[in-house]
Amino acid sequence: MSLEQWVRKAVWQMAGYTPGEQPRGHQSFVKLNTNENPYPPPKVVLDAIANEVDGLLRLYPEPSSLAVREAASRAYGVHPDQVLVGNGSDDLLTMIYRTFLEPGERVAYPDPTYTLYPALATLQGAEAVGVPWLEQGELPVEGLVATQAKVVIIARPNAPTGHVVSLDLVARLCRLTSGVVVLDEAYGDFATDAGWPLLSRFPNLIIIRTLSKSMCLAGIRLGLGFMPKEMAFQMHKVRDSYNVDRLAQAAAVAALNHLDAYRPIIDAIVQEREKVILALRQRGFQVMDSQANFVLATVPNGRRSGHQWLEELKKEGILVRYFGSDPRLSDKLRITIGTPEQMERLLDAVDGLLQDNT
Ligand SMILES: *Cc1c(COP(=O)(O)O)cnc(C)c1O
Predict the structure, then answer these.
(1) Of ligand 1's atoms, which has the minimum distance to the CA of residue 211?
(2) Taking the model in full, what pTM does it have?
């Protein structure tokens, strides 16, 4: 037998999920391509990680991340047994697929959205169904229900568009679908509202959050899932036994105990986002309103394609994200909101390229 025959067909045939580039020596780039936070974590969080570095690292971590679940309980007003902790929220998505999707069953999501959703479906042998957003980006409730999917995922705010759907429509979807609804709030802290009020109303709703974006801890890998207790009990069975390490648990407890330390960071990013949207529009980009820490910008009519903008900005030391394989996005750049200094460098580079155009 050959490697091709050993490897599962679904794995052999798939391209594999491609995350944004993490270049070696990335310090020399203005890195606006993976929606990381431009600010370092608060000192209390860094201190908590440092304090955890001792001889006890020889011991396994608490398997269910109990201290994190208790901290999340205090931070968000839920019961600790309603919280499931993941090695990033990508890990929670994997657990959701493993818990609910038999091979051949469907997972549906409004599209375009986070491209990990179909990639995980391939691995699980599930069928991924993208349903186009309605006009103005509203949630295609009826279309999603019609897929008869076992799991429906909505990113709110959505990636890569940054827009949000109305929570009334999410509630309507929870009522009408016979499956599980996952509200992916990876960018929820940058938005004006969140799905918390729905959590106690619907037995089929899961909210997932991450410390990677608003909480400045993408390097730590920690995600939080919120759901009814009985559902969390089932999902614990598919979790890797020790899926969150000691350092990550310590960081998460400190972060959740000091949400107030994040307020100035989140406010600064939101403020900068609004400035950047206006500045890019003045330069001929079409920019969607965004409630996340990034914007999706259609490049100006001119001699450069989306891909050329990507390449030329890179030559200027600025990394942005480009989704060229999706024709609906091939004239667009997704730009993470950084510090005011970083955004000034972006806008200077844009100005330079635009002048070069004439
Ligand atoms: C970044 C992102 C995630 C994953 O976050 P991690 O916790 O770092 O795994 C999940 N969903 C969406 C929509 C994201 O953009």
Answers:
(1) 7
(2) 0.96
